[in-house]
Amino acid sequence: MVHRLEKQTIWITGASSGVGEGIAKVFHREGANIIISARRAAELERVKAECTGPGSVQVVPFDITDAAQREAAAIQVLADNARLDGLVNNAGIGQRALVKDTDLDVDRRVMEVDYFAPIALTKLVLLRLMEQKSGQLIVTSSVAGKHGMPFHSAYCAAKHALHGYFDTLRIELLEYNIKVMLLVIAGIRSNVAEHALLGDGSEYGRDDWGGDVGISAEECGERVVEAVQAGEYEPVISIDPAREPMDLKDKDPEAFIQRMAGLMQWMGK
After folding, report:
1. Which one, of 223, 222, 243, lies nearest residue 235 by Cα?
2. Model pTM above 0.85
3. Contacts of residue 172, Cβ cutoff 8 Å, sequence gap at least 6
4. Is residue 209 part of a domain?
5. Is the Cα dihedral 252, 187, 21, 161 positive or negative?
6. Which one from 115, 155, 204, 233 is the annotated catalytic residue?
7. What residues make up the domain containing 62?
8. Is there a domain that residue 59 lies in?
């Protein structure tokens, strides 16, 4: 059997559920040695037990927003693995509140988790990748990184920031043969909405779409492997209703605004 990621060592954050769990299981099945991280050690152990590939699974739990824990995790991963072929910056948090109802502390929290934490972790492993003159940085973004969405202002801001940062980093790393990919995803079945932050910082606690709607996390992982193999910069992994506004924004900006206004009314209910 041919394994498309055979013997590659790849670190995946946010791997205890959702997209991160799906990527971890598929990457492992495709022959990668994976390092999986998130805050919940017990859930990481569950994911490890459910991985079915030929490679190893290293569990490194930590809080990605805690600078000391983040640095300690990077030191451990780099010490335990002579080579690091990839980092999947997947850990993140969502938002469900209008701008006028969102405390500034919530804006800062979303930016910390979704933007500052992944770029800080990237900096901690970047020199290893540059020394190797090879590697892959994969960043989970969203259609919200390509256009505005009601009830998602801070989330959109963080995802837009990721595009600016990693698009620039891709250029700076050309001579080092390090590839940078941003995953433009939407409609993946996960619990991200349940943990999204309301304006006061409490959790949203429910799923907008229903558990059976959308793309499974492992289907998403399969698409990511295909994108890695093809050297894509910005694969779109999305259900059609979420992809359509992204295409509409450039073709008909007024129609896009009206569509988003309709979404705002629906979400407000």
Report:
1. 223
2. yes
3. none
4. yes
5. positive
6. 155
7. 9-241
8. yes
